[in-house]
């Protein structure tokens, strides 16, 4: 057994010394802090965020970050009939999926199934999928055989109001046109209604009229110009005395 040597332990403790200098990080003055911040801004891109303490907002395009307990009205989809072409053309991608029949309310479940169909078809491809709608309409339902006057019911699912000729999904990437057509065909089969495949640069739509060779100003004008001289005056209405005479009398 090795004997204990208290003298060696005491010598080792005596050799230790504590420095008087502080090991903490030195504080920077206001001028030095501004200089370092300006150097960091010059090295980073213009649109990059250095740091943010803001918490990320929950929710996505299939479920917004609002309370589900708030009751909502059914409402109707916006139909652009006054000259607006917003949401009818491909904005960010190269190809798009557009509704062609009439406005309707599509549930988040159907949109999720359509998104999964596109991702399954384009597995292994380099692409990016853009969503042009948001499921921000809460659908509340009551149970079967519920008598009237028992309230609106509880929350059931989220849905999105899609207007006629509105772009719902867009696609961009290193894809062939036929591959994108096939992916959107599968997605359209999963969604209610009729859908069409559109490309970037195609004319917009006002209501149900495509502006292909027709400008918006021409569409707002009357169908034909009629001169005031050619308009015939309306015939006067028959008097009350004439209406009382029988038709068989001359």
From TrEMBL:
CDD domains: Ribosomal_L16_L10e (cd01433). Keywords: Ribonucleoprotein, Ribosomal protein. It comes from the Eukaryota. Residues 228-250 are annotated as: Disordered. The keyword Ribonucleoprotein applies. Belongs to the universal ribosomal protein uL16 family. This is Ribosomal protein L10e/L16 domain-containing protein. It comes from Apiospora marii. The lineage of its organism: Eukaryota, Fungi, Dikarya, Ascomycota, Pezizomycotina.
């Amino acid at each position: 057994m090795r004997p204990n040597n208290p003298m060696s332990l005491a010598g080792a403790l005596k050799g230790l010394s504590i420095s008087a200098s502080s090991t903490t990080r030195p504080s920077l003055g206001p001028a030095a802090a501004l200089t370092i911040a300006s150097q960091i801004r010059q090295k980073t891109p213009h649109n990059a965020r250095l740091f943010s303490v803001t918490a990320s907002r929950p929710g996505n395009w299939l479920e917004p970050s609002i309370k589900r307990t708030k009751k909502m009205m059914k409402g109707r989809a916006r139909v652009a009939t006054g000259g607006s072409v917003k949401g009818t053309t491909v904005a960010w991608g190269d190809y798009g999926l557009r509704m062609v029949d009439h406005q309707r309310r599509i549930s988040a479940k159907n949109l999720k199934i359509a998104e999964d169909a596109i991702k399954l078809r384009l597995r292994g491809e380099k692409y990016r999928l853009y969503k042009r709608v948001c499921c921000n309409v809460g659908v509340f339902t009551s149970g079967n055989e519920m008598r009237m006057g028992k309230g609106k019911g509880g929350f059931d699912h989220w849905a999105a109001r899609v207007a006629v000729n509105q772009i719902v999904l867009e696609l961009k990437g290193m894809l062939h046109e036929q591959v994108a057509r096939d992916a959107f065909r599968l997605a359209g089969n999963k969604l209610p209604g009729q859908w069409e495949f559109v490309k970037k640069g195609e004319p917009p739509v006002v209501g149900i009229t495509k502006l292909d060779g027709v400008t918006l100003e021409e569409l707002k004008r009357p169908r034909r110009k009629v001169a005031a001289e050619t308009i015939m005056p309306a015939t006067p209405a028959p008097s009350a005395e004439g209406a009382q005479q029988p038709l068989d009398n001359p």
